[in-house]
User: Fold this.
Amino acid sequence: MNTAPPNYTPEISVAPMMDWTDRHCRTFHRMIAPHVRLYTEMITTGALLHGDKERFLRFDPAQHPVALQLGGSDPEALAQCARLGEEFGYDEINLNCGCPSDRVQEGRFGACLMKEPAHVAACVSAMAGAVNIPVSVKCRIGVDDQDDLADLDRFVDTVSGAGCRIFIIHARKAWLQGLSPKENREVPPLDYGRVRAVKARYPHLRIIVNGGITSVSDTRVHLENLDGVMIGREAYHNPWVLADIERDIFGNENLSTRVEIARAMIPYIEEQQARHGTPVKSVTRHILGLFHGRPGGKAWRRALSTLPYEDGATGNVIEAALDAMGKASSGCELTPATL
Assistant:
């Protein structure tokens, strides 16, 4: 059982997902769930040190608490980028030790770093020494043939010795060759028991589980033994699961309706257009799942898959999509009771 004190607040978060959890997606998720921790998509040290820092790092302060996930393997570069993240106001810096893609491996970061726990420890030590905010690590339960509890134990022991107190563990191993990133999220079997074993071995660390979690009931089960739960693709395709989390885990009954959230995106879209020239489609692509499983939900997705791509599109595409949804659902009134 989780031996956390009575006033302990579990950590529920949305996973960093490449091409998905950008600033617009995070703003949308925050509107749904005020208490869930948000993560950026992975940003490489090279992109930050040699690219447009403002474009990569800016975010709406309403997104707090929000963590910056870094991809890299050079301790000095990671320390510099961690410092940048803190200066921009992020609440946590996370090191990616779980992504198995070929491109990431070529840069010597992601899941392949699990084979080098001493080097990860050096990276964490440099990052932790550069900032005053928490440094966490997201990893797998194993990689390739380093796939037993002793390997994971050695990794956690070595990296925690360098100052890391938060581990987010995807409960699948990663195959660096032979499986695509998508297959690495689906083919290796889930082993939540191995994550629980890490928590039992290191009760002083915050251990958060990731992988295959799709509901409040899943979340409650994991919180019996672990410090937190990270939800991935379910939160993107069916974002209302975050509202269920808010209500049932955090006890928040003051939730906006789906329609209210949809309409709240209109001024956000207009503000992003005015300030940054952001195309409407760059925002609306993240909210297609808002009415997942609800009357007219397909019409909502269909409208937002076409209207934002037309010349001259504005935030009013949201109202047009709501209208299309209402018509498709046989004229039923769009109220909290129906949505």
Notes: DSSP finds 16 helices and nine strands in the chain. Confidence is low (pLDDT under 50) at residues 1-7, 333-339.
